[in-house]
Amino acid sequence: MKYLTEFRDGELVQKLLAEIRQSVTRPWAMMEVCGGQTHSIIRNGIDQLLPPEIELIHGPGCPVCVTPLETIDRALAIAAQPNVIFCSFGDMLRVPGSTKDLFAIKSQGGDVRIVYSPLDALKIARENPNREVVFFGIGFETTAPANAMAVAQAKKQNITNFSMLVSHVLVPPAIEALMSSPTNRVQAFLAAGHVCSVMGYWQYEPLSEKYHVPIVVTGFEPLDVLAGIHRAVLQLESGRAEVENAYSRAVQRDGNAPAQKMLGDVFEVCDRQWRGIGVIPQSGWQLSPAYREFDAAARFKVENVFTQESPLCRSGEVLQGLIKPNQCAAFGKECTPRKPLGATMVSSEGACAAYYNYGRFISLESIPG
Q1: Which of 24-38, 61-75, 277-291 shows the lowest mean pLDDT across its residues?
Q2: Is residue 369 over pLDDT 60?
Q3: Domain segments of the chain: what residues?
Q4: What is the C-alpha to C-alpha distance for residues 308 and 265, in angstroms, rounded to an integer?
Q5: Handedness of CA 271, 252, 208, 183 (dihedral sign)
Q6: CA-CA distance, 54 to 190, in Å (whole number)?
Q7: DSSP state letters, 147-187
Q8: What is the CATH number of domain 26-312?
Q9: pLDDT tens, 128-171?
């Protein structure tokens, strides 16, 4: 626990907060891209400790949250088939589709299994040669290398009963979409450290220059987040717009070259639908032609599933930073973690779940004393 407590030291937090207060002279709005950073901010009350001039906008960096509704429905359709073993990370099982979730499919007799790695699903496929094994491959660049490795191993080992339902999304096109939106209020970004550990941060440099926006690569512990905020404030106050690395213990500019090569072999860039946001051009990965035979959507003929979101759910506006979760009328009422309307209330990285779990739906004026 030593290296965790070092980045949660209360005295160092107060010192860094004092430096931020001394640096800021005017209002600034910055977005933490990653849902893991959002939970760290809300759980530790960082947004409430910051000076009032700084507004933190919660970004779309929760992979569960942005997985489109039609992809969830495709997963449900595949998982319901009798000869299928459907494997997924646990946080996807309660994400609502149009009418049900994967837990409902499991309760109705579907063979839905939680795994901790796509390689676990590949092992299940080897052990069950007479059944189709499907892995739900979602996420940002962070989880993509392991998913690519599983597909590459399946081809190398000729495991033909394995396939993957892919819904990978990419951070830089999302930043571009946000910055080019007429409703954009973001003046600086805290980039996700784990994404940059894979991809590096060279891709952010053209965006920083084009939109004159500071982008600071940031970790996830309280001191990491505050260090990222401090660097962003210093840039904003001085009129600079650069890419800075505040997470050098894990991130290098060029990233992980072997992982990037694997990704380039197995995947190709494509347009991608983001739940609650819409299509962002060139913002996703799909299996490349050399590995298309492992595409579960094509194998089970569910590519043409299209659906509509609940009209009550405003998660798309939350993901774009247009509203805070507790500004949605359904928050904590029609929409709770037990009966969610959208993925942002389900995911362990969802902004709505963070606000609900850490009491941000409670009015301070209503608390006695």
Answers
A1: 61-75
A2: no
A3: 26-312, 315-360
A4: 34
A5: positive
A6: 13
A7: HHHHHHHHHHTT-TTEEEEEEEE-HHHHHHHHHHSTT----
A8: 3.40.50.11740
A9: 999 999 999 999 999 999 999 999 999 999 999 999 999 999 99
